[in-house]
Amino acid sequence: MSPEQKKTLIEEVAKVVIQHTDELTELDQAIGDGDHGLNMKRGSEAVLAGLDAQLEKPLAEVLKYVGTTLVMKVGGASGPLYGTLFLTLGKELAEQPDLASFSQTLSLAIEAVQKRGKSEPGQKTMLDVLAPVLEELKRDEDGVIDRIRNRAFSASEATIPMRATRGRASFLGDRSIGHMDPGARSCALMIGKTCDVLGG
To answer: pTM for the full model?
Structure first.
């Protein structure tokens, strides 16, 4: 990827998070601490602030920069989890990634997030978007970008009827049912925008 392409990709992903700050806040007010939107906005703004200095580096190094920044700037559980995701993606990304190698990279990143959060798919977290997206990546190349985008958003919607068993929302028990997980929503937004940029 050229510096311009890397800039567009990271900027667009960060901006879509910032644009949805209020929505993410409202989702988190329903079942969490209410700070997911503002925390993710702060982290995204910090990523944007230092991005230009990273653009001559390989994409893997840019992803590590994103991960490190999110760990440092995003509070709550989201900072370490998203930081772990991007740091692992950067660490494992092949120099010339294809679909198969990126599937393996994402698989390792998901494993790292699971280990960090002591969680697994089905517990109403961002993993409930990441795991289905990985399934789409592993299928075939035919229409993969559109499939991933659609799967990410449908997977975030599928957290609504789930009962949370990890994180702050788990304290609510059955009252967590009927609300979309804010981490799943922010994850879907970032994946959707990534698909938009790569597809374009």
So the answer is: 0.94
